[in-house]
Automatic annotation (TrEMBL):
Low complexity composition-biased segments: 620-636
Name of protein: Membrane carboxypeptidase (Penicillin-binding protein)
Catalysis performed (reactions): [GlcNAc-(1->4)-Mur2Ac(oyl-L-Ala-gamma-D-Glu-L-Lys-D-Ala-D-Ala)](n)-di-trans,octa-cis-undecaprenyl diphosphate + beta-D-GlcNAc-(1->4)-Mur2Ac(oyl-L-Ala-gamma-D-Glu-L-Lys-D-Ala-D-Ala)-di-trans,octa-cis-undecaprenyl diphosphate = [GlcNAc-(1->4)-Mur2Ac(oyl-L-Ala-gamma-D-Glu-L-Lys-D-Ala-D-Ala)](n+1)-di-trans,octa-cis-undecaprenyl diphosphate + di-trans,octa-cis-undecaprenyl diphosphate + H(+); Preferential cleavage: (Ac)2-L-Lys-D-Ala-|-D-Ala. Also transpeptidation of peptidyl-alanyl moieties that are N-acyl substituents of D-alanine
Keyword annotations of the record: Carboxypeptidase, Cell shape, Cell wall biogenesis/degradation, Glycosyltransferase, Hydrolase, Multifunctional enzyme, Peptidoglycan synthesis, Protease, Transferase
Keyword Signal tagged: no
InterPro entries: Beta-lactam/transpept-like, Glyco_trans_51, Glycosyltr_51/Transpeptidase, Lysozyme-like_dom_sf, PASTA_dom, PBP_transglycosylase, PCN-bd_Tpept
Residue span, Glycosyl transferase family domain: 75-266
Residue segments, region Disordered: 616-643
Amino acid sequence: MSSRAHRRLHPLAALLALLVSSLLAGMLAALLFLPAVIGIGRGTEAGVSYFDNLPSDFETGEVTQQTRIVTSDGKTIATPFGENRVVVEPDEISQHMKDAQVAIEDERFYEHNGADPKGIARALFNNAGGGGTQGGSTLTQQYVKVSLQDQALRDGDLEAARRAATQDGLAGYARKLREIKYALSLEKTHSKDEILTNYLNLVYYGDRAYGVEAAAQHYFSTSAKELTPAQAATLAGIVRAPGSTDPVRNPEAAIERRNVVLMKMHELGQITQAEYTEARRSPLGLDLSYPQRSCASSDYPFVCTYVVEWLLDRPELGETEGERETLLDRGGLTITTTFDSSLLDKAGQELREAVPPDNDNAVAAATAVVEPGTGAVKAIAQNRPYGEDRGKGETNVGYSVDRPYTTSGGFAIGSTAKIYTATQAIRDGFPVQGMIGLRRTTDLTAVNSRGEERTVPKGVFHPAEFEECAGVKEGELWAVQNDHGSFDDAIPFKIATEESVNTAYSELTTALSPCRVRDTMTDMGLHRAFLEEDGSYRPFSTKPGSVALGADEASPLTVANSFATLASGGVRCDPYPVEGIEDVDGKTIELDTRTCERVLSEDEASAVTEVYRSVPETTSGGASRARLSGGRVSAGKTGTADGSDETWYTGYTPQLATSVWVGTPDSLGQLRDITLGDKTYPGWLYGSTLAAPTYREIMDFAHQGLPNESFPQSSVDLRQGEVVEVPDLTGLTVLEARQVLREAGLLALNTKPWAPADALVKRVVTTENGRQDSARFVEITPHTGEEEPTPEKIRQMLEEQGKLVEGTVADGATGEN
């Protein structure tokens, strides 16, 4: 069937359309004071009555606008939006643009009162035989229509949006009448310039550009205020049919339509002959720019994703996630984040230089920088760019933050965990200058990752030494070795920290109780990257290997934030990425972000810092690579998980805390004898190899212009300890004796760790009669008739448990500089 035949109406339908159009014409003549050539009959009176009963109060509502996410220094991170729109004021729109839109859409705009009788009458009679109601609408009516659609979409009412655009049949005529009534009302309350500006801010200009400012930016990389006659005519010509006159997809049609608009502008005297000729001869001159509509197109995609996901959890933005998402997409918010763009750039640069994204070893790196005392996140970055091409080293997983802000599950923190054991020790009164008592090691033959057999000394811990909460099963041994060196008898607290001695920290964890150390981890803000069903974060395991040697996983942000608890003098704050939000009217949306709690005394935090200042400042080994420039005071800790598949350096000053992770997120192998870029790293990678020097570069940059602040000194008691009366331990088991001693400010070393759990303390060795210096462990010996297991028996038990291979988590083969 031809289009002409398709448009031909049934005679009865045509007659009905003619009667309806006659009715409307008569009604409008009466309403709009057309010349009295048409009498007001009964049908017209009925139409007038219907028209009078239509609502006239037109509420325009908020216009959908794009949201801007910016850094603290004003750089745009992204503009997530449902519609790309930037609302501007009347004086921010070129007169050429106003003239062009009026010329092509409603040349009598400044003469009518919202409805144009001549245009409407002509359209009604022309449409009577065609079945549609197109044409005849003034700019004011068009604005009413588009505004009703926009508001319906904002409200999620798709049916109302459909009704607002209905064209055909009686429903189309009814819609037209509503538009006219609203338009007449609107013209009584708004000036022509206000109506025209609102229209230009609202209409669609094709290619996802809503409103004239967004269109000017998109097509010509300019502002609405700077549009030339040719550019203005191009945009004005799009509105009637965006699909067919889009300059990007249909440039020839766009030029043809532009020239029609220019001719109309010339006819109306809006441009001179010379301007008309010049504009008509000019090319389209597109200079396309695309907004960072999604996080994927942002210069900082992982930052953007973190911010958006964090905001979707904020009740201040709406009761439901759907309401929050709508506000973010359409609310025209200005979201100022805590991030510094220069620090983001520097952190990303340093990570990429240390670990090129497309390296053959699948090694990745990430960092997070947090402000102590507030929780403000100053930077997150990673070496891998956003994308799906693994060959280029791309990923869509953010490594720096926790779930639900990413899909990463975090990474084993290795020896980083030792700082939490140290904190618990200080809380229990063990001083900075204390000596950690050590058990005798057992020489065990083990097979390393290369299949080579060698004999190494290991500290063997027995299940009876741990409370039930530690989750150590009966018969389950924990054998711990050092990465290098063997220590006997006792070792200074600071040396054990500087050398990252696993056996010493395992002994300290056992004396303190792994369960209590885990609680201190939680107090300081350390948790795993996973969420529990109740929405809380999963705490670290109470297993000794997890607590003492960092077998569990965490994100760089969480690790950095927990160290910030020490930097702030014992105040833990929840990390947050958003400093402030303004709505479209410039009003502040209040956020409850400063959630802080004191979890350590300032004296306790200062004592821990004094211990961990020794790592970068006095060590001649690898951790000295983290020493900051200019003698700036800092404290920190390396971390290497078993097999060196994850390496860390985390440190802090009074102003900032930073964690750097370098590892294998895909668990494709150990970090040994690898090449990254043009550098080869023989042997094992440690936290001191790449993470520490990268940390230094990031922190040196972040501290530019900041004073070199010192940490407060701890008290004499926490530095040197004190002499304590040893309580009576008669009739107590080892576990009970340890608890009593801890309550007195003392720690215990079990000289017969293989003794059963019910064995009672037989002998107590103190530094002087009945009294003990809290800087040294109290030696307790349980009564037991059981012989110490031979190395062969221990080896057999470990082999049965699958824990004999050197370098496994159970073996605790971590500890490095």
